[in-house]
Design a protein that fits this description.
Length: about 270
Amino acid sequence: MGTMTIACIGSGNMGFALMQGIAGIIGGADIGFADADATKARVAAAALGAMVFGSNTEAVEKGDYIFLAVKPQVLAEVLAEIAPVLDRRLAENRAPVLVSMAAGWSIEKIQTTIAGTANVPVARIMPNTPALVSRGLIALAASAKVAEEKTAYLEKILKSAGTVDRLEEKLFDAVTGLSGSGPAFAYMFIEALADGGVLAGLPRDKALHYAAQTVLGSAAMVMETDKHPGELKDMVASPAGTTIAGIAALEEGAFRSTVIKAVEAAWRRSMELG
């Protein structure tokens, strides 16, 4: 494949995070932003040495991959706006690949919402905010209309923002509830750990550092040892020790059940958005 132009409609945190990673691979010159807030688009573009498109339709006219980095509630409006350009490019056999990250919007729903262009190539991704520091987890599904070489290229450039996992689209609502919303739950846990450290006498900055590093290291243990989290937990919890006393307190507060319910609630909300 030759040089590809990457257009991003929306310049919020997630769109910018992905473009920042991609710029590290292909350079900023082949990336462009379009946003209803022109100032935001200019600021994002300036940070990466990227282009600014004057409108969403210009972005779709010039892009080979069109990232739809907008909120699910406004995606229908954006799709209606860009549909005529997509229709023309499809008829000319030069259709771009739409890359949506909107929770609740299936590939089929996107295709059928674009009147006359149900055959437009659409890929769907579900990234999470650690993509901002190139530690994201990005689920990827593509329609049959996306050629394998184009899916492979998309996977390649997305790896700049973290781990990419090809997944059946039917599982995307579950991904949204777990890895999409999960960072917020993890941040709350880190904050609570730090508060516990402060209660025990640690200075706030030390408590936060220890809490964050503890969670980071624990996650690495799960990823790198291939041991079950329960086994790793048992390795820490010695008989009549400090850790088992803390575990008992967590269980008294229904810790695991509450976390499961949080993921379930986010999963159900993702389905409602669709």
